[in-house]
Amino acid sequence: MANEFSLDGKVAVVTGAARGIGLEIACRLAQSGAQVVFTDVEPELGPEAAASVQGGSYRNLDVTVQSQWEDTIQEIRDQHGRLDILVNNAGISPAGNIEQSDLALWRRVQTINVESVFLGCRTALPLMRQSGEGGSIINLSSIQALRPAAELAAYSASKAAVRALTKSVALHAARDRIRCNSVHPGGVHTRMLDDFAALTGDAEAALLKLNAANPLGRVGLPLDIANGVLYLASDLSAWVTGLELVIDGGSTL
Prior knowledge:
This is Ketoreductase domain-containing protein. Belongs to the short-chain dehydrogenases/reductases (SDR) family. The chain is of the alpha/beta class. Helix content is 45%, strand content 15%. The protein folds into two domains: 11-185 and 221-245, 3-Layer(aba) Sandwich (Rossmann fold), CATH 3.40.50; 190-219, no CATH class. It is built from eight helices and seven strands, in the order E-H-E-H-E-H-E-H-E-H-E-H-H-H-E.
């Protein structure tokens, strides 16, 4: 039986791919046969990450700069002639309730978490459309888009915006068989989660508490999220668009 998750012949771009969830996603897509462009602003970590898998390459990309997006997509056009998968993963999650968050922090979070997704979708769509074979855009949102957290005011708002933008893009791009879905991770064990746990003063105890609180008994792993992205990138989800794929071990139930 053929591998239904095969991405052979497909070209993918993953933002924020030098570490954490983005790295796991990029590696998972590459392991499934895609040619994957790892993008990030980590010139020391990024090339090493891309070199770790067959079919990986690295490009430095500040996702908040339109001209860098345009240069990246043009380079993909020149080298591969097509783009099938775009994963808008790059983001930040600084803590702060509405009174603790100043305007500078608010704008920084919206720029990195929302404007980057806008720029990525807008810039990539013409090349994705060119092949006539459709494509898949996967935007990383969060469970905070569905259940906002008081201590993550700017982040919760930004991920809600990603959720809504995803649905708008899904409706717009459907005519070209380009699908657009959002993934909503719960607590995943990455550097971001470690930083958040450290704010409690006892990071180890905080992580144990998070594990115990999850219905499935543990926080997520980057691979849990990458497997969900692989499904949305593959032809198995050919009739799936505008979906909110929640991957959280049941924590929002």
